[in-house]
Design a protein that fits this description.
With about 575 residues, the chain is α/β, with parallel strands linked by helices. It folds into three domains: about 1-20 and about 145-250, Glucose Oxidase, domain 1, CATH 3.50.30; about 35-140, PtsI, HPr-binding domain (Enzyme I, Chain A, domain 2, Orthogonal Bundle), CATH 1.10.274; about 255-565, TIM Barrel, CATH 3.20.20. The protein has helices spanning about 35-65, 65-80, 80-95, 100-115, 120-140, 165, 185-195, 205-210, 230-255, 280, 295-300, 310-320, 360-365, 365-380, 395-415, 430-435, 435-445, 450-460, 475-490, 505-515, 525-535, 540-550, 555-565; strands spanning about 1-5, 5-10, 10-20, 155-160, 175-180, 200, 215-220, 225, 270-275, 290-295, 325-330, 385-390, 425-430, 445-450, 495-500, 520-525. The strands form two sheets. It has an eight-stranded mixed sheet with strand order 1-8-7-3-4-5-6-2. An eight-stranded parallel sheet has the order 15-14-13-12-11-10-9-16. The longest helix is centred in the first third of the chain and has 29 residues, at about 35-65. The radius of gyration is 26 Å and the shape is globular. It starts with a strand and ends in a 5-residue tail after the last helix. The model has no long low-confidence stretch (mean pLDDT about 90). It binds phosphoenolpyruvate and magnesium ion.
Length: about 575
Amino acid sequence: MFQGIPVSPGIAVGRVLHYAPFVPQKWDKTVQDGSQAQELIQYEEGIQAAETELQSLCDRLEKSDPEKAKIFHAHQDILHDIVIDEEIRAAISDATSAQEAVYQVFGRYAAVIAQGADPVMRERSADLLDIRARLLRCMQGQPEQDLSSVHEPIVLLAHDLLPSDTAKLDPDKILAIITEVGGISSHSAIIARSYGIPAVLGVPNAVSEIRQDTVVIVDATKGEIYLNPEKPMQAAYLEKREVFQKQQEVTRKWLSAEPVMLDGERVEVELNIGLATKQELDASCHLDGVGLLRTEFLYMGRDTLPDEEEQVKAYTQVLRAFEGKPVIIRTLDVGGDKKLSYLNLPVEENPFLGNRALRLCFQHPEIFLTQLRACLRASVAGQLWIMFPMVGTVEDIRKAKQLLKQAQQELDQEQIPYADTIKIGIMVEIPSIALMADLAAKEVDFASIGTNDLTQYTMAADRMNPAVGHYCQMYNPAVFRLIGQVVSSFSAQGKPVGVCGEMGGDSLAAAVLIGLGVRRLSMGLSNVAQIKKSIGMLDARRTSEIARHVCGLSTADGVEQYLRQQLAEIL
Ligand code: PEP
Ligand code: MG
């Protein structure tokens, strides 16, 4: 399985098409004295040809998609930028070849922008490189390579997609997009979202390791890609795709509903987010907060760690959008299946049982402290709850809190403000801490149950390995019993306990969770409407009876069958 950043949700199954954008032919770096006039002509003709292409692209997009046309109007402006033009002309008169001058000058500006502090500006360096590629191609007299010539639906795989590549996509022919680079605010992500094409970006080594024509499953709700899946797995994902699409339809109707049960009891419905999309932030008014901000997505699909400023900005944006509602920022959870190539971490035999999340952060306190400082600094923008992932022991909690205190002391010394209302919590996703929940609860303000990992560790079945997928049973009564124990322990001490694993967004499981006493469910945006609808059809007494019955059953299949039969009306 490959993991990347899900930037445009959806699910697709299809064949891979490799797309390699234009690679310019080599050119001489310098020219003989006296050839400058000829070089200048080549440059000016190139500008003219590029301008003609951009104008016809804008004319076409102006009718079909004015938002996208704006991107290429900006390209026209950059193409004619006076400072860049002067520098290119000066280099040519110094006997640099026209192509080398274009290559160097545009490259220099792109590099400067790429190193800036503002992540949105950094993404704009791709625009400069896009314009450079167009200009060089025009100077070499080559025609435009065109993705619009794709005839049958495919999964598009590329190292990167330039804005001009994505703008010409025929959304009916592109089932999904996979790239090795890019992030949530890169143009390819913006355009994929606007077309509704599922997209997973920042997938390391995808181009070299996924061959042309390979059949893949792209689960862009989670950022997962599976190669050569067997027919039953393909069928399962096609079914998931259908469910996803149906959910999208009901979303519009139920998103704004109040999550109140028939007996009047309210269940908090919160959002799981990776890097916040506009759609997610815009939905804040319909949600009770963010139950899980998976910060690792900020660290993926790039070559260096995000610095403190970038993190402050990203966290602040979410806290502001949720206007005083709780936002649970989960500290870095890398390792396991989520690799950061630039950290050069040793290969592990069992990465899920290895140096992951909090464990890794303890080994790299400088990375952890930078993140904690950023969280604290952002806390003034809203109601921050900090959550530590992969807690296995009470010592883990104490150590993490100690480091948080260190970050607070640093900020105190620097007289940098942070909120004094921050709640500190843990993810309960390792059975050892679930079994110790009564004592763990004394150390923290809240807990959130990570049912994805809690299931894999309870069932001893790798959640990424399709070969043991049937052992990784979310509906196994053992998992529900363990959750029940955690909920009782935290509730008895008056500490909030929620669920932020996939179970929280699963209607059948959510009913059992409510029956076990959970009153905070967190899920991806695409599940919110369905869960709100289910909540409205349940009541506390009925869910407790269902939960009691489920915990007494002996198999996961038995549980699922029972729930389907009992809860047919909510599905
Ligand atoms: C979980 O384990 O349930 C969880 C929410 O965290 P993640 O899926 O990111 O491991
Ligand atoms: Mg987890």
